[in-house]
Amino acid sequence: MSHTIQLGRRSFLTAAVAAGGGLSLGWSLPKAAAQGTGAELGIWAVIQPDDTTIIRIARSEMGQGTLTGLAQLVADELDADWRFVKAEYVAPEVNLANKRAWGDMSTGGSRGIRASVDYVRKGGAVGRAMLIEAASKQWGVPPGECSAAMSVVTHKPSGRRLRYGEIAAEAAKLTPPTDVKVKTPAEWTLIGRGVKRLDTADKLSGKTVFAIDVQLPNMLSAAIAQCPVFGGKLKSFDASKIASMNGVQKVVRVDDSSVAVVADKWFQAKTALAALPIVWDEGPNATVNSQQIDTLLKGGLDATEAALGQQHGDIATALAGAATKVEAVYGTQFQNHATLEPMNCTAKWDDGKIEVWVGSQNGDASLAAAAEAAGVRLDAVKVHKHHLGGGFGRRGNQDYVRQAVLIAKQVPGRPVKLIWSREEDMQHGFYRPITQCKLTAGLDAQGNVTGLHARISGQSILAYLMPQRMENGVDRIAFQGWTAEEFGYMAIPNLRIDHAVRNTSVPVGFWRGVNTNQNALYMECFVDEVAHAARQDPLDFRRSLMTKNPKHLAVLNAVAERAGWGTPLPKGIYRGIAQNCGFGSYTAAVAEVSVSPKGDLKIHRIVCASDTGYVVNPDQVAGQIEGSFVYGLSSVLFSKITIDKGRVMQSNFDDNQVMRLADMPKVESILVPSGGFWGGVGEPTIAVSGPAVLNAVFAATGKRIRSLPLNPGDLRPA
Amino acid sequence: MQLNINGKVHDVDADPDTPLLWVIREWIGLTGTKYGCGIAQCGACSVHIDGEVTRSCSIAAGSVGGAKIVTIEGLSEDGLSHPVQVAWLQHEVPQCGYCQSGQIMAAASLLHQKPNPTEADVAQAITNICRCGTYQRIKAAIDTAAALTVPSPANGKA
Question: In chain B, what is the straight-line distance between the N-terminal and C-terminal CA atoms, in Å?
Answer without folding.
Answer: 24
